[in-house]
Amino acid sequence: MVEPATAIVAAARRASARMADRDTPFIFDDWYVAAFADEVGRTLFARTLLGKKILFYRTEDGTAVAMSDRCAHRSYPLSEGTLEGDTVVCGYHGFRYDAHGDCIEVPAMAKCPRSIGVKRYALVETGNLIWIWMGDAETADLAKLPETAFQTSAEWVCSKGYLHLAGNYVSLHENLLDLTHLSYIHARSFGTPEYARAPFRTEIGDGHFLVHREVIPTLLPPVWADPMGLAGVTTAARIATSEFMSPGFHRVTVSFYDSAVPEAKRQVGTIRTAHLPTPETHSSTHYFIVHGRDFALGDPDATGVMHDRLFQAFEEDVEALGKLEHMLAETAPEDMYEISVATDGPSVAMRRYLFQRARSAEVWAP
Amino acid sequence: MVEPATAIVAAARRASARMADRDTPFIFDDWYVAAFADEVGRTLFARTLLGKKILFYRTEDGTAVAMSDRCAHRSYPLSEGTLEGDTVVCGYHGFRYDAHGDCIEVPAMAKCPRSIGVKRYALVETGNLIWIWMGDAETADLAKLPETAFQTSAEWVCSKGYLHLAGNYVSLHENLLDLTHLSYIHARSFGTPEYARAPFRTEIGDGHFLVHREVIPTLLPPVWADPMGLAGVTTAARIATSEFMSPGFHRVTVSFYDSAVPEAKRQVGTIRTAHLPTPETHSSTHYFIVHGRDFALGDPDATGVMHDRLFQAFEEDVEALGKLEHMLAETAPEDMYEISVATDGPSVAMRRYLFQRARSAEVWAP
Amino acid sequence: MVEPATAIVAAARRASARMADRDTPFIFDDWYVAAFADEVGRTLFARTLLGKKILFYRTEDGTAVAMSDRCAHRSYPLSEGTLEGDTVVCGYHGFRYDAHGDCIEVPAMAKCPRSIGVKRYALVETGNLIWIWMGDAETADLAKLPETAFQTSAEWVCSKGYLHLAGNYVSLHENLLDLTHLSYIHARSFGTPEYARAPFRTEIGDGHFLVHREVIPTLLPPVWADPMGLAGVTTAARIATSEFMSPGFHRVTVSFYDSAVPEAKRQVGTIRTAHLPTPETHSSTHYFIVHGRDFALGDPDATGVMHDRLFQAFEEDVEALGKLEHMLAETAPEDMYEISVATDGPSVAMRRYLFQRARSAEVWAP
């Protein structure tokens, strides 16, 4: 027996010390999906994001607002209070806040004290998504808002879903960036044995990490073969691009066609999935997903069938990442190391990027 | 939007640093209700008070005794053993303790080793209440025993109850000392909208903190209007006094009458409630309550109806304080601050008093 | 009342500071039972031992193997993967390990990187037991393997069982070494009142601690009186020897006969129990038990009856030690002390021995 070589383990530990993991502080100065648009309305709605308890509602003109869910007076959850017009009244002592998080009334006081309030968060709504800037609202940078225009484009048919992941968001990003797992975790859904062995190329940029894989020829799984009319076709092509776009957004694009058909005559179908992980705590993640296709647009049945099959696969990831989180939580530091191989290049670079951003933020407390 | 002013938040944090909260050490040198008298009898009874596991029983002559529940030999819970006469026999190796907590027999030894024993606690029984001095028994100070004579007086009809609170006892004291919450938490039981806005006066003494509030005219809630014969009377008066008496005792006294009736002809009814919080852990509290009235003494139905309605309201507090505890537990220190307003004067003073007492005790470990 | 003498408590604390308890590091350089032989087969089996998650299976030739359950790549539990021939394939990215824990295939790589692997553990199988050496496999010392030959001897009829103990293994060893608890914890099973008071002798060696107790005359409990034909015999003898053999092995031997029968004509029956505690975590223990008798060998009914009655008693220990663990976990350090008496000599020595071994190991982190 050859024990794992001491030098390799030591090198792996040195490398891991500069990679984000479940213990790395969150990155606040960025956009994350807070909720689907239809989750926020005229009732008070509370959700924990990046460890912060946040209150959401819409004002009477339909604008979504977000503020700290903790009353500045005695910490009672504002979400347990009542929405009156555009204001929230705390359910404990009646402190009233406007849609900016400013306290505008204290019932026991003839005059409301000035400059009391709770932290407000900047929100932007695009299509079905409500994005939140988790840093100071004044620093919210619209130029950094992820581009997900496909979700409202007439050229795409989309569906959406939410999964609660009992694992950290770094593991989910890593999962998405290394699709060799399709042959294993998804062996019974959309993985195929040759997928993990297919050639690939990677791009490692500044905050953008990409893996591109071409599986030709292959047999498509039913989820795509059926609506593409490629069932049983052994000469199919499957061209997948997986891209880390930001801490809250990972984009997967996959094209399909029959490689036996000359390029000029090919019918190419493409799917695009926006994977939108928002950390809840260091060991749990809100996993929002928007999925679209640019083919079989007039086939409503295809939408339901594809949605069900894909979300079944995403649930396989959630289940697996939950088991992984459990292992990470129970492994003693002295037993912990992660050995990376060549295919891990993009995910290692991505984890270094997250680590650097977390370290450069003020919240870092080593 | 005006962000909560940095200077105000900083000042609030400095003030909070000298106020007791859920992290403040307990105050051991005082009396707390350990149990209702009828909870302790000739079977072994265990309860955790101020983080200490304590065993209770009565000797054959009916005297209630309390001692540490942990056998001095190998830490087995004595409450899992047997009561034999006035002695307790440990269920593990048979160590026998007398009612003073002294070990008087070790079965495997011909002669019992001397000076082995467990900590005994001083108890005093008054009416339905068994009070415990949580410090050293020799220092138990009867002069500090709270006065609750009304519970056994012929001029009062009383009922009692127990609620388990999933929150710290400081929050409960603060809840009781700021009755503006009646209009919100108890909006559906005995709160009325004008209550929070009524004029009040406060008294801040050395270990005694009082809020007095007069709501005239008002419409009494049914719990009091019905037995007082004041249902529908819009000129009713509601005079409430809320007093922090000790870490284990808060007294609320409320009088009712029809303010339209000349003073000489008024029928004044008074209720008195002894709120008796005993910390279990830093995040849970035994909440004992004795409630009495000095009117409708011959109406047994009124007792049951009032008890049920009042305890429904006390359960509203318990539910709200449980939600508050959850928020406090989940708020990161860097996000925590509490802004006090003028009506918080007595509760801020009370929390400073608890903080000072905790700090001056030997158990303080900063 | 005499408070527990301060000097005695202080001395007890000084003594305890050198005795193993629930906080003492584990002793890795020794043999522990990992599983019964029939628990490990051709399916992947995971168990946590001494805080380490370990994977077990048998190769095609029937050899039991054990290795770390954490994939060296990204920490996914190998037990969630698949067993293919003698190899394990990780269920996340398909890393394949041989029975030595060496990684022999990475699907996404044309050539497997060298010297990647997971920690392998040395196993030895004796009779129904699979023993594991928890330290480095190269240091596994067969000379230290506990001797339990009786389990496969024709002179003994054996049965076996497993109990999960919600308590630390030190408390279980102490329980086994001080059988005065039989009169209390087992008062309704195989304890008798006079047992705790019977004369005893002890032996304290280097890693071997023994208590020998002779109860003559006595009335045997039915579990032994019935198969020995000594029911109702008031002159029975019960000679018990309890021996700590190693951190993972405690042996109890008890002989029975009618003391009224002359020595030459006596029928002596003996039972032997191998108590095999393997720490799972610091507060839980895998409790393996093998029980044998050398009498009534041809009576299959006796085996079942004795097994059921004995395991009922062992469950009494498990229940009591669970309550003890709870008390230990909830007792504040400043309230904790354990006073030992003369009968505790062997268990105090045993706990000092475990403490010394833990302290001398490299894993000790004070």
The backbone outline of chain A, from C-alpha atoms, is: globular
CATH-assigned fold name of the largest domain in chain A:
Naphthalene 1,2-dioxygenase Alpha Subunit, Chain A, domain 1
Which stretches of chain A are low in confidence, meaning pLDDT under 50 for 5 or more residues running?
none
* Mean pLDDT rating of chain A: 93
- What's the β-strand tally of chain A? 17
Largest sheet geometry of chain A:
7 strands, antiparallel
What is the N-to-C order of secondary-structure elements of chain A (H for helix, E for strand)?
A: HEEEEEEEEEEEHEEHEEEEHH
Biggest interface goes to: A-B, 39 and 36 residues
CATH architecture of the largest domain in chain A: Alpha-Beta Complex
Q: How many helical stretches of chain A? A: 5
Question: Strand arrangement, largest sheet of chain A?
Answer: 11-17-16-15-14-13-12
Q: What value does the Rg of chain A take, in angstroms?
A: 23 Å
Instruction: Give the N-terminus to C-terminus distance of chain A in angstroms.
Output: 38 Å
CATH superfamily of the largest domain in chain A: Naphthalene 1,2-dioxygenase Alpha Subunit, Chain A, domain 1
Classify the oligomer.
homotrimer
* Helical content band of chain A: 10-25%
CATH classification, class level of the largest domain in chain A = Alpha Beta
By helix and strand content of chain A, what is the structural category?
A: alpha+beta
